[in-house]
């Protein structure tokens, strides 16, 4: 593996999940692989889980880790090419990226969508510049349009908890006061479609995701109908994708909050969310605190998905 930015980079799922479960049962089996190797984690945006789980995964592999928060202490970076740099940005990514590459062996990047220019976001300008100019294997720690480390952890979690060969998995939009990117739902859809599950997406009208991510999923605008017989409910908010409303909040309707009455329509489904979650907006306390909520084991699997990816990237350079 030379990079990890989308579902195609992971290869066959059965091998990836087998490797994940082997690592989970002995996470220190490969401590020599990362010896004298350095991971640089570059954050353009905030994080709790990704920062901690990825650093822990690298440490499990014997690596040294450098964390750079671009907005806290680093020079403000210009990302546009060909501009006259007479504003507040002191350094261009074109120098900053290869310089970062000098000090490490692998680079993880978190850079969210700006949500004002759809074309710019869906071009994945920032992470693609890291791939092009760093000279190092690069992996996404959530980019503008995808969050593959999260989706891989979600896949591992579903494989661990499922009781049917082909479970019904429902991705449901839920309300949130702020405009959020489509990266998590896009990526979740990409991975669930590839897994071949019975996959349904439910959201209010106006929240349609990009067709290339929806793929073969069934779209159901009636949330209650979508929940019927589900084995897993995956809640997430996202802002509008379709023009002219790209990046906008069209609704904060709490009728879409996941509650116990809707969970009762499912086949005793597990509740999932990538976290952080807004309680009693996205999901009621009753549901997230119930014994069918698996948000903590799901977050714990972020260490495992990161470790598989970093291990494979290290194997490509050793
Ligand atoms: N789920 C997730 O990526 O969490 P953080 O934003 O805290 O890293």
In brief, what are we looking at here?
The protein has 318 residues and is of the alpha/beta class. Helices cover 37% and strands 15% of the residues.
What does this protein structure show overall?
It is a single chain. With 318 residues, the protein is of the alpha/beta class. It contains twelve helices and twelve strands. The strands form three sheets. It has a five-stranded parallel beta sheet with strand order 1-7-6-2-3, with helices on both faces. Strands 10-9-8-11-12 form a five-stranded parallel beta sheet. A two-stranded parallel ribbon has the order 4-5. The chain is globular, with a radius of gyration of 20 Å. The mean pLDDT is 97.
Features:
318 residues, alpha/beta, 5-stranded parallel β-sheet, 37% helix, binds phosphoric acid mono(formamide)ester
Helix content: 25-40%
* Assembly level: single chain
Question: Structural class per helix/strand content?
Answer: alpha/beta
Strand tally is 12
Strand content: 15-25%
- Radius of gyration over C-alpha positions, nearest whole angstrom: 20 Å
Distance between the termini: 12 Å
The SSE order reads EHEHEEEHEHHEHEHEHEHEHEHH
Largest sheet: 5 strands, parallel
Q: What low-confidence regions span 5 or more consecutive residues with pLDDT below 50?
A: none
Q: What global shape is seen?
A: globular
| Heteromolecules bound | phosphoric acid mono(formamide)ester
Total count of helical runs of at least 4 residues: 12
User: In which order are the strands of the major sheet placed?
Assistant: 1-7-6-2-3
Whole-number mean pLDDT: 97
């Amino acid at each position: 593996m030379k990079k990890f930015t989308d579902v195609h980079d992971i290869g066959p799922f059965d091998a990836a999940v087998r490797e994940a479960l082997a690592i989970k049962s002995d996470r220190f089996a490969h401590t020599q692989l990362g010896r004298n190797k350095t991971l640089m984690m570059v954050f353009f945006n905030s994080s709790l889980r990704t920062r901690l789980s990825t650093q822990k995964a690298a440490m499990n592999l014997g690596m040294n880790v450098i964390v750079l928060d671009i907005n806290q202490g680093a020079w403000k970076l210009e990302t546009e090419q060909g501009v006259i740099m007479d504003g507040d940005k002191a350094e261009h990514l074109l120098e900053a990226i290869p310089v970062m590459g000098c000090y490490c062996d692998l680079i993880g990047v978190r850079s969210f969508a700006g949500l004002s220019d759809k074309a710019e976001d869906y071009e994945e300008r920032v992470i693609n510049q890291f791939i092009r100019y760093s000279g190092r294997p690069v992996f996404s720690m959530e980019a503008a349009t995808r969050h593959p480390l999260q989706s891989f952890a979600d896949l591992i979690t579903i494989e661990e908890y499922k009781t049917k060969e082909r479970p019904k998995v429902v991705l449901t939009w839920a309300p949130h006061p702020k405009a959020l990117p489509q990266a998590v739902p896009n990526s979740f859809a990409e991975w669930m479609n590839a897994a071949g599950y019975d996959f349904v997406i439910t959201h209010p009208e106006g929240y349609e995701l990009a067709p290339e991510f929806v793929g073969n999923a069934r779209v159901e605008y009636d949330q209650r109908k979508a929940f019927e017989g589900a084995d897993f409910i995956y809640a997430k908010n996202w802002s509008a994708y379709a023009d002219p409303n790209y990046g906008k909040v069209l609704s904060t309707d709490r009728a879409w909050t996941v509650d116990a009455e809707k969970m009762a329509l499912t086949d005793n489904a597990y509740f999932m969310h990538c976290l952080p979650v807004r309680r009693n907006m996205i999901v009621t306390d009753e549901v997230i605190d119930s014994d069918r909520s698996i948000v903590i084991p799901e977050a714990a699997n972020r260490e495992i998905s990161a470790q598989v990816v970093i291990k494979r990237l290290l194997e490509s350079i050793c």
